[in-house]
Amino acid sequence: MTHENILVGVGLRRADPGTRIDMKTLPTPALFGVATAALLRASEKTLGFALPVLLQKVYTEVGNGGFGPGGGLLGLEGGYADSDGRTLLERFQWLRSEGWKEGLLPLFDWGDGAWSCVDAFKSDGTIVTVDESGYTETRFDLVSWFSGWIEGVDLHSEIFETEDAVIINPFTRKPMVVKRRVKAKGKMP
Question: In 38-174, which ranges are E strands?
Fold first, then answer.
């Protein structure tokens, strides 16, 4: 899929509140306008490296986050923030202070400390899962990641092994079966 096709497809899913994000347990994020070229340059200067070209185009041609797999793409300044109120740069800087790998940008939050990230130092923009077991390279790059999301692929199932677990429903107090993450799929870098 070309970048242009991806931008159109992402824009269509973004426009529909029912498909804007994959995590239906979260409220649908508001729509954020596109990031300006000046904001993009300032963000890259703060990071100390350039964002992958497709990601630059998503921010400057589609919107400043709040759409996509998981809880939605983190925005740049003034865009979509995570549950802690942090935008991409704020989350990245906080994670770096905690020993996070340089060049690994946390883009999509899956909850419980699991993130889908892009390795900005890899030319294809490899998608890396980060969770309690560490860093796991997936089979996705930015192009295949956004293409899969546009096509309705269950990316959570593609990047995590899951198993059935029985829990007690807190509302009904009856047992129910849920899927829980076991581990990330892929290879350790």
Answer: 104-111, 114-119, 126-131, 134-141, 160-168
Q: How much helix, strand and coil, in percent to the nearest 5, is found in the chain?
A: 30, 25, 40
Q: Which pLDDT band holds residue 87 (cuts at 50, 70, 90)?
A: very high
Summarize the confidence of residues 61-79 as an average pLDDT: 97
Burial of residue 58 (number of CB atoms within 10 Å: 0-12, 13-18, 19+):
buried
* pLDDT the model gives residue 165: 87
The alpha carbon of residue 35 and the mean position of all alpha carbons in its chain are separated, in whole angstroms, by 17
**Helices and strands in the chain: count of H runs, count of E runs:** 6, 6
pLDDT at position 35 is 98
Q: Is 31 exposed, middle or buried (0-12, 13-18, 19+ CB in 10 A)?
A: middle
